[in-house]
Each structure stands twice: as C-alpha cells, then as structure tokens.
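Sequence, please.
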C-alpha cells in the first residue's frame, strides 16, 4: 500500500516544522532522555579519545576505537550494551590509567535514577518547545541511560499529552467546537477477542472487535472534524500480540493522530507514535515515529486488511514482536480509546513518591483519574514525578503521616510541613509546583488509617495517599475534594465515600460536580 499521499506528506512536514530546530522531540519521543544520554555518552567518549595525545600518534587506532564505541552504544538496545566487551577494549588501549575517565561512565551509581528523572522532568515540564535539547546538569553514563530507559518505558501517555499541549499552545488552539469533540474514551463497544498461540514460541493473538459499528463510524467522523478544527486525537491502542503490559480496558500504548486522508477507499489517519522506533514506514521517507491508522466499518487499526491484522509477529523474543509481517516497520495498533485535544480545562499536577503504592501503581491511578475527568472535558497532566529513597533521610519522618480526623480544621502540622518541604524552591530534584498546580504525595501510612487525605496548607493545593491502602480510584477521589467536591452515597460516583467499593467502571461525576470543577482555580482554561 502507498501510505505517502500528498496530503499526509504535507502534514508530516508541517508537524516537524512546529518543533523548530528541536527535532529530537519527535524523533526520540518517550525515550528522549535514553537516546540523548547515549548520544551524549558516545560524543563524550569520542572527545576523550581524540583528545588523548598518546593515541593521537596512532590515528588508525583512534578511528577504530571510536567506531567500536559508536557501534556498541548507538546501534542496539541500551539494556543490552556489553560492559564486558567495552572493558576489554579499554584494557587494550589504556596506558597508565588514561582511560579512567571513560571507565567511570560505565559504572552504575546510586544517583543514576534521580539524574534520569531530573532530565525527564526538565524536558517534559518545560513550557513550550525548547529551541534545542536542554543541557543536563549530570554527566552522561550508561547507568543513567539504562535508568532512563526503565523510567521512560511506560511514559507514552504522559509524553503524548505533554507534547500535544506544547504543539497546541504553539499553534494557538485552545478549544474545539462541540461536534468535533470526543471525551468519553471508549469507542464502538470495543472488546478483546483472544486467539490461542499457534506455536510454543508464540504468544496468543489479541483482536479488538466492536459491537457498536454505528458508533465506531461516528467516532471516525468526529476524529476528522477535530483535526479539521485544528485539534489532535489521542488514541489508546492494543497490539495484535498479547503483551505483558496489556490490561484491557487500560490501553497498552497511545498514539497521536494529527491528519487524515483516503487511501484505497479507506479512511486513513496519520499519527505520531511516542515510541518512535515502533512506527517508521520505510516507503514513506517520513522517518521514525510516523504511522497510519486505517478505518473501515469493522475496525480502526494499522491493518491494511483483515488478513494483515492477523499476520503479526507473535514471537516474544523477536526484535519485531508485535509488528505486521507485511509492509515492514508497522507495529500493530488497534484503537479502542479516543479523546480529542485540547480539552475545556487543564489540571497540572506533580507526583512525589516517598513510598511506591502497593495496591495500584501510580500509572494505574493516573489513568483511572484521567478517564473520570476527561469524560467531562477536563485534562489531567502530570508535569513531573519524583521518587525518593527516604531511608535515613529528612523526609523519612513523614512516612507515617498524622493527618487527623478531617480537614475542616485545616491540615495537621505534619501535613503542612510535608507540603512546604516538597514545594520549597531550589530543591536539588524535581520541578517546583506552581500556585495552581496540585502536589500529590505518596507516603507509607496515614494516621488514622485512610486511603487518602486532601487537606493542605492555604494556597498549597495537594493531597497525600497511603502507599498501603490507596486503590485505583483513590487519586481521582482526592482530586475531587481538591476541586471542592464532597463525599456522596452513590456507589457509581467517584466521590463515593469508600473508593474501594465504587461500582461503576469508570465512575461518574454529576452535573453539579462538573460545574464545580469548571469553576475551580485548579482547572485552568
């Protein structure tokens, strides 16, 4: 199939132009820090080798060493870099310890994750689109790159929504007309059909099916209307091969649609993929990160045909796992979740983890909260996230946090001190939360025992969650309190007094709830 139509080709060119000279944003996507760190690491090593006066007398050895490092560091997965092979080469070319500076770059440190998180927050919390890659305040190293990869592996949602907000701001698009909006997420009565694995090395195939074909067609019409009005469409997808991260109905991955056309009598939607290495159709010349969804009466996916949808690489150990077997460089994406951007209101939040939650991950709680509020045109953006190691540190005293028996009398001194400490300017890690930005802190235990608590100091909006008790909808519930909502007795509402017993999936907000949120200073127009 010829995916490169004049209209889609022009759209890719315009999309790239929006980034100015900062092409790394769309080229690296969610693995921005990983790839930038590896590029910087390779460049630093090259500078060290070329600056070595002893090696300068042996130009062939210099070029050979540089070629070796480029091949080892830039041509394969960052988690598969062979430190043993690198050490062996350094042993061969070193004299009197003059490779010590390079050796240090391959030794893991306790600061690697914090350095990776700092760089991630710096680029994705930066207002607008920086003119060029931001300089890191920490040196490049393999440990930092590998920590960044682990961090960025599940950041497609955050990166997609953040980049979309940057591009919309640059284009001056602040709203969409009602007929061009999609807010409720689920589309076409989507459900998953599993097919057993064919061989011992294959995982089962998963196919999205729709029991409401009419609503699927209507959704695609609204997608076009949103794009024509200058907006974007956020698509949640599932691949065709069962993935360990698959947890329907929570999307496995997310892509951003920004143009549409017709190809071979099918609706074609051009998208940018935050995991840029998965979408790079060779025949288009668009480069990494761009793909095409095709819409028919029965599906919205990357498949050219029904046969193409079933011809998926399902061998998990393969480098092409999840890709279509025909027309290479196309990962199989099947859409079952849609939202248009921008939304009517935006809520910006920062998460700080003194203890990782045990019942639901932060990402699961964020996704659940996003579904609740996005259904009413309210977008949640996680601006930054910081994970602390508190053992023996000053913040460790907040791990058992006394919150009192209600927030009517104001927060306890402990809660006030915690919020003030994590909002203080000039801290070494993280991005400071603004006056109308929400701070979410996860601690080990709340006293008395509770899933969450939304009391906070004046003009310091935030909530604390219990790592041991917080569940899937705890964050969404506590955000409701920050917007001014009260507990209710309706088990289908996110403000139900016991979030662990919420019946509706996802829970609802009443009309009065939505009016209150839209009036909150925390929900910015």
């Amino acid at each position: 199939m010829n995916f490169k139509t004049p209209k889609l080709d022009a759209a890719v060119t315009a999309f790239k132009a929006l980034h100015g000279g900062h092409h790394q944003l769309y080229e690296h996507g969610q693995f921005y820090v990983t790839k930038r760190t590896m590029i910087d690491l390779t460049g630093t090593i090259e500078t060290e080798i070329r600056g070595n006066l002893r090696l300068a007398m042996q130009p062939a050895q210099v070029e050979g060493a540089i070629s070796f490092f480029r091949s080892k560091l830039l041509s394969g997965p960052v988690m598969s870099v062979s430190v043993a092979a690198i050490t062996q080469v350094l042993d061969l070319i070193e004299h009197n310890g003059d490779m010590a500076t390079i050796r240090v770059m391959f030794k893991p440190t306790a600061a690697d994750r914090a350095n990776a998180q700092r760089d991630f927050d710096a680029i994705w919390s930066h207002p607008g689109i920086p003119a060029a890659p931001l300089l890191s305040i920490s040196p490049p190293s393999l440990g930092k790159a590998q920590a960044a990869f682990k961090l960025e592996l599940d950041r497609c949602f955050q990166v997609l929504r953040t980049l979309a907000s940057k591009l919309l701001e640059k284009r001056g698009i602040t709203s969409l007309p009602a007929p061009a909006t999609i807010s409720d997420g689920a589309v076409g009565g989507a459900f998953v059909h599993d097919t057993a694995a064919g061989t011992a090395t294959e995982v089962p195939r998963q196919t999205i099916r729709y029991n409401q074909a009419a609503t699927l067609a209507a959704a695609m019409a609204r997608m076009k209307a949103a794009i024509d009005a200058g907006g974007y469409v956020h698509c949640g997808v599932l691949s065709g091969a069962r993935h360990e991260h698959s947890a329907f109905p929570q999307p496995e991955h997310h892509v951003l649609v920004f143009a549409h056309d017709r190809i071979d009598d099918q609706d074609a939607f051009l998208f940018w993929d935050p995991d840029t290495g998965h979408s790079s159709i060779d025949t288009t010349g668009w480069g990494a990160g761009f793909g095409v969804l095709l819409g028919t009466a029965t599906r919205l996916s990357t498949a050219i045909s029904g046969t193409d949808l079933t011809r998926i690489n399902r061998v998990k150990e393969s480098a092409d796992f999840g890709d279509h077997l025909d027309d290479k460089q196309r990962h199989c994406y099947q859409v079952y979740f849609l939202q248009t951007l921008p939304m009517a209101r935006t809520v910006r939040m920062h998460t700080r983890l003194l203890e990782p939650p045990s019942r639901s991950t932060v990402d699961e709680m964020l996704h659940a909260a996003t579904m609740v509020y996005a259904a009413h045109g309210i977008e949640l953006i996680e601006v930054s996230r910081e994970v602390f190691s508190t053992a023996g540190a000053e913040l460790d005293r907040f791990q058992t946090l006394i919150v009192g028996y209600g927030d009517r009398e104001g927060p306890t001194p402990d809660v006030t001190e915690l919020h003030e400490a994590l909002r203080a300017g000039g801290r070494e890690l993280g991005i400071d939360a603004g006056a109308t930005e929400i701070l979410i802190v996860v601690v080990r235990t709340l006293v008395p025992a509770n899933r969450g608590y939304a009391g906070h100091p004046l003009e310091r909006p935030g909530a604390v969650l219990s790592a041991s008790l917080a569940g899937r909808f705890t964050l969404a519930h506590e955000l409701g309190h920050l917007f001014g909502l009260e507990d209710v007795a309706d088990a289908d509402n996110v403000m139900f007094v016991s979030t662990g017993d919420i019946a509706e999936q996802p829970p609802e907000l009443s009309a009065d709830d939505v009016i209150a949120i839209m009036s909150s200073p925390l929900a910015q127009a």
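The radius of gyration is 24 Å.
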